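As the work plan foresaw, our protein records have gained a structure token line. A representative record is set out beneath this paragraph:
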Amino acid sequence: MKRSIFLFIAFLLSGAAPLLAEEVQIETYSGPATVSVSPETTFVYDMSALDTLDALGVRNIVSISNTYLPYLSGYEGEVGTLFEPDFEVIHAAAPDLVILGGRSMEHLKAVRRIAPAIDMTIWGTGLLEQCLARLEAYGVIYDKPKEAAALRAQLEQALAETTAAVAGKGNALIVMTNGPKISTYGGGSRFGWIHDAVGLPEAVSELEETTHGQAISFEFLRETDPDWLIVVDRVAAIGGDGTTARATLDNPLVRDMRAWQEGRVVYLDAGPIYIAGGGIQSILGTLATVQDAFAAAGRLTD
């Protein structure tokens, strides 16, 4: 990042007095952007961003009417939704910075007409690298470099400990249930960073790298018979009323799998990884769940 300081001289009736306005250039999803340092008020429409800003202890943040995440509910306000900002509210409130991303990214140009705005989307491969880049950027913007460095160190330690925990414990298949439907995610996909980050072998290679995963059947699960089944429940993530992952998977074909019979089905905290994927707390929580499950299991032998 390149920091540039711009000095402006304000000529007042009583004489000339210098004012200091500091700006920093950061990398965003849509390219380099110049942002004023230490914004006093921030509107946040991206839950990955809000997750990380919360971990940094940034204050004076207002977010959407429903964050879907209990640990971020204290930021909820009437500024729009996860998908669409309320432009009238933004115009009236005149926040110092608006952070968009993911589901709200398409509104960047429109928001920039009425307030300073950046797109901090985290998407595609290299989720951990993107997370750390965003963490560093927020540390600079909000003058919290020590807090950002501490969180980075915490993540590095969690990665090392989880890598050690999964070593020699077999392969895994990551699936997401959406009511009665099931899809799977391999390395390089939306949830596949779990494989890539800690060296957890994939039960099936060459899966399709699609946004919504590769649709599969219960027969596929039984035939694949992974050592571990790691589960994301979309219904739980969005607070829906559909069939839960536990109910969906509780059928004869899945009950016949080794992972089910030997207690190696891991249910992730779905909200953070689905709604705030790439946020530092989301990643740390996911790693902790994986680490705890694998650490409690013995090494597998052929």
